[in-house]
Write a sequence for this structure.
């Protein structure tokens, strides 16, 4: 198995667990406090990981264009989590998480438009299945 496959499987496992842990915590706290605490812990762990891996040594040499993309990604992530936590406070997490995966379609489109990544028949079939599942869950 290629390293990226291991990383994405671990990401999937921990991402799913994180949502359940967050929902459990929101039984006793509001979504705003939950998101601030979660994000603070996230920041600390990511920072420690970057320091330990030596990933900050070139921090000052990040090109302006790359910095702009990272800032846009940070803003998008923040807005995403604000809306997701608002929805998670009152919705069934199983359905919510499944509908949320519809964001893959945005990724497909932007990857094609901005990154010039190919949209293969396999990707189109997968996207159609995701769209179908999303509509089933939304009804």
């Amino acid at each position: 198995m290629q390293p990226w496959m291991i990383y994405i499987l671990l990401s999937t496992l921990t991402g799913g667990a994180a949502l359940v842990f967050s929902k459990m915590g929101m039984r006793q706290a509001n979504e705003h406090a939950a998101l601030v605490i979660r994000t603070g812990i996230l920041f600390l762990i990511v920072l420690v990981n970057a320091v330990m891996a030596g990933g900050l040594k070139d921090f000052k040499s990040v090109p302006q264009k790359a910095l702009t993309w990272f800032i846009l990604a940070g803003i998008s992530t923040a807005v995403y989590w604000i809306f997701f936590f608002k929805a998670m406070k009152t919705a069934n997490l199983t359905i919510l998480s499944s509908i949320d995966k519809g964001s893959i379609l945005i990724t497909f489109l932007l990857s094609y438009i901005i990154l010039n990544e190919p949209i293969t028949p396999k990707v189109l079939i997968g996207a159609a299945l995701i769209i179908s599942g999303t509509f089933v869950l939304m009804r």
Notes: The mean pLDDT is 91. The two ends are 38 Å apart (CA to CA). Residues 64-90 form the longest helix (27 residues). The chain has two domains: 3-91, 101-139.
